[in-house]
Each structure stands twice: as C-alpha cells, then as structure tokens.
Amino acid sequence: MSDAAAAAAVLAPNGILRAGINLSNFLLVTGRSPSGDPEGVSPDMARTLAERLGVALKLVPYESPGKVADAATEDQWDIANIADEPARAETIAFTGAYVEIQATYLVPAGSPILRVEDVDRPGVRIAVSARSAYDLWLERNIEHAELVRANGIDASYQLFVDQKLEALAGLRPRLIDDVKRLPGSRMLDGRFMAVQQAMGTTKAKAAALPFLRAFVEEAKASGLVQRLIEKHGADGLSVAPPA
Questions:
Q1: In sequence order, what are the residues at sequence separation of 6 or more whose Cβ sits closer than 8 angstroms to the Cβ of residue 34?
Q2: For position 1, what pLDDT does the model report?
Q3: Which of 102, 110, 76, 82 is nearest to 94 (CA)?
Q4: Fold type of domain 3-99+195-239
Q5: What local confidence, expressed as pLDDT, does residue 159 receive?
Q6: What is the C-alpha separation between 65 and 23, in angstroms, rounded?
Q7: Other Cβ atoms within 10 Å of 235 Cβ, number
Q8: 233, 243, 181, 201: which is closest to 49 by C-alpha?
Q9: pTM exceeds 0.90, yes or no
Q10: Long-range CB contacts (< 8 A, 24+ apart) of 32-39?
Q11: Nearest 5°: CA angle at 8, between 2 and 11?
Q12: Tally of CB atoms within 10 A around 230
C-alpha cells in the first residue's frame, strides 16, 4: 500500500475527505464559488490534498477558528486549516505552517505608543478578536495590559473605536485598511507575532500526520503555496519557512 493510500485509509475511509475551513480569515478564504463553496488558498490546499489522496473533498465551513477547534472532538472534519496554537494542539495534531501572517497593533490619533514593545503597559486596553490565533498568543504573553475581546474582526475594530481603547490587535493586511478608516490612527512597525497557518487532523487520526507534514513541506518547496497566494491575490500572506 502506498503512503497516500495508507493516509487515505486513515483520513477518509469512506472515500470523502472532510476539510474544516475557517471563513473568518479573509486572506485564506477570499470568495465563494457559484455553488457557494469557499474559495481561496485554504480550500485549494484541502483540494490538492484530496487529489493527492485520491478521494473526494467536502468542505466544512465554520464562522470562526474557535468553532473549527471546538469541533475537533466531535467527528465533524478529518483535516482542518487553522493556525497552530498550543491551546488547539491539545486536541489537534498539526503540520508545520504553510503560510504566515504578521500581527501588529493599530493605535488612535495622538497615541503616545510608538513601538510594539510599548503596548504591554498598565492602563493599556487592547481590543482583540476573541479566540483568534493572535488572541491566544496575547493571552499567554501579555503581562500588564488588558485584553478586551469582541466576537470577530469587525467587532473588535468597532469596540476599539466605540470605547476609545488604546490599541487594536490584528492582522497587518486588515489593519492597513483600518488605518484608512480612522483619521490620525497609526499602525505600529514590526509585529508582536506571526500567525502560523497550518493543516491539522484529529488526534484519533494522527497516524496520518507524517503524510500530512510531508505534503505541506512539499507544497511550500514546490512553489504550490506561492502560486495559490498569487492566484487568489492574497496580499499579506507569505510562504512559511521549512518546518
């Protein structure tokens, strides 16, 4: 039995690979097909994997990465494309990242905050999209500032504006648009982390993880990931380095 056939027997024993797709990442899901299926780098990675395994593909969409992760123990998907985070790794076995997305802060007009390092201070309130990869990172690493969570990226921006918070955490490509909407605001140079978008499977199907890891590394090395970024115009994504 080939490696692909062995992996298919674990991941898609009924001949259908169910792929959990996070719809809230606008860089990885950039549109919809005429039939309504998600389109973008993430769905295309799942599609290429299904072709490699020789099975059909069923995309299983979720409105947030937290809901993708919650479903890991409910037999709703066989593989999922979300960021690798320690909290998620308790129930999901991850490959190396296939793309990275820089995360930084937006500050309002007149803010004395000049550097990413200056945000973690007493009295600083950071608006953040709840259960995003960068929220999970901030939860582990912020020591002095206060995290103020909202349900989704749009809601975190509105919270930042409405409550006049000191900083908005977000993905750099989205913050580029937000800074244009908010007169006088500034996006801080650098990053506080890079979101590591990876492919994962459930712990029950971890026997297929070596195949998935090799697939992701080959997709990066062969130029496939870069071609998908260019195909979907996903400016702000960069190919992750070798694992």
A1: none
A2: 77
A3: 82
A4: D-Maltodextrin-Binding Protein; domain 2 (3.40.190)
A5: 98
A6: 8
A7: 11
A8: 201
A9: no
A10: 39/232
A11: 145
A12: 13
The secondary structure of 135-177 as a DSSP string is HHHHHHH-SSSEEEEESSHHHHHHHHHHTT-SEEEEEHHHHHH
CB 148 within 8 A of CB 168: no
Q: What is the pLDDT of residue 235?
A: 87
Which tokens belong to 140?
């582990």
Extract the tokens encoding 237. 């994504």
Question: Domain segments of the chain: what residues?
Answer: 3-99+195-239, 101-193
* Positions in the chain short of pLDDT 50: none
Q: Which two tokens stand for residue 76?
A: 């709703």
Q: How far apart are CA 108 and CA 225, in angstroms?
A: 35
Domains 3-99+195-239 and 101-193 share a fold: yes
Question: Are 99 and 216 within 8 A, CB to CB?
Answer: no
Predicted pLDDT at 139 = 97
The answer to whether 147 touches 163, Cβ cutoff 8 Å, is no
- Topology of the domain comprising 101-193: D-Maltodextrin-Binding Protein; domain 2 (3.40.190)
- Maximum Cα–Cα distance for the chain, whole Å? 64
Q: How far apart are CA 191 and CA 103, in angstroms?
A: 5
In three-state secondary structure terms, 189 is: coil
- β-strands 31-32, 92-107 pairing: unpaired
